[in-house]
Amino acid sequence: MFKIFQYTLFDLLRSRWTLGYLGFYLALTSALAFLSGDTSKVVISLMNVVLILCPLVASMLGAMYYYNSREFIELLLAQPLRRTHIFWGQYFGVALSLSLSVLLGVGIPLAAYGIWASGEIWNFFVLLLDGVLLSFIFSGLAFWIALRHENRIKGFGLAILAWLFFAVIYDGLVLLLLMEFRDYPLEAASICLALCNPIDLSRILILLKLDISALMGYTGAVFRQFLGSHWGMALSLGALLLWLTTPALMVRRIAQRKDF
Amino acid sequence: MIAIRQLSKSFGSLEVLKGIDLIFDKPGCVTAVLGPNGSGKTTLIKALLGLVIPDGGIIEVDRQNVRGQWDYRARISYLPQAARFPENLTVRELIDFVKNIRRGQQSQEERFIRLFDLEPHLDKRLGNLSGGTRQKVNIALALMYDCPLWILDEPTNGLDPLAMVHFRELVQEARAQGKIVLITTHIMSLVEEIANEVVFLLEGKIHFQGTIQALKTQHNQQSVERAIASILSGGASFSANGHSAQVQQLALSM
Description:
B: alpha/beta
């Protein structure tokens, strides 16, 4: 698996997409850090970008990479390699190349700005952790969707739809649900609903760390009220790790049965 | 040695392979697997390599049932039909990659780089290569290991005349070395030149299996191309209610 992972990573680190993505984060973080001057505000601004952009780019690139390497996968499958190792190697290669873009694109300008000396260092680490987890989760989901659908337009469309669902539609549905059942106690239900959305979980994780009540929203506030900041963070991080392993296991399951 | 027993495979309601029985055990024998588009030849080859998982039947390579196995592929040189590689890697990196996967096996990449004149392209990105050069890289990658079994799917796609000559020589050499070679192609003159035997698939069943000479004699024809055409048009003669049009269509797609 390591050989496939190594070559996928190497291939992607030289791709225009990955370099463009890295360049975007470098430019955005530099601009925010050097123009704003307030590291706390920079982390919050970056959080909003990371929560939307990481899942979107991971969904697009995950599906695109699978479909573009479809014939190459056939060549790899004819080599003395385990099926699971081929797909996991590719998946981890894609996810890590995206994670490196986030880590370096956000990390280098903030390190140059002097984040180490500020009190925001742990918030900054949680932001980077969010970026990495979302890159892994959504590229895994995209790989899973792409493996299930031979038609690349359908697969690509569904990967983008999954992003749209978790980034936009899901919050609207939760809001409707909370409005509809506002006469009932909804705390436990809202925690469960938040656990089902990795973008919400990432938002809650960083907002609990930042401890900014105004931005938490209903579910974030419930997390803090019922679990406290530390347990709330532990629960959201645990749920995110579950989100991380589920697509990887689904990729394995499909890879073992699929005809190429 | 490859032994296939009662191999069947369906994709949804489409039955592609219908209980195929085949044995490839003659050293130095080049077998052309022929058939019109959709006859099941690519599915048969992919099932052999484990790319397609059969619904039923057994495939054995050197008496080992290959179901769920992967290490037997170290004894197979496979040339896929489409030569698409990661676009950002160079030719040299790709060759190193395959060598890394097959670590422990002796490779002869230098010979193939010289033979197909790939030296000037070694440091070029694969995405920038022409179709013909990519096919040469494809052949070099597939054949640079000394495997006892070769499976070649449409090997001459995009090759220039000189590369075609080299390819024919390589197959003749493999034959002399006692390798078992399976080849699919739509070029009947190539079949006539390099193959000893023919397996003709039609609608998921073996319609003919034997030597080239037997094929010609059986159908009373001078060339393989005409003999194959005769099989297809012969199918039309005993079919009824519009099936002849289907067979005619199959002949056209060859």
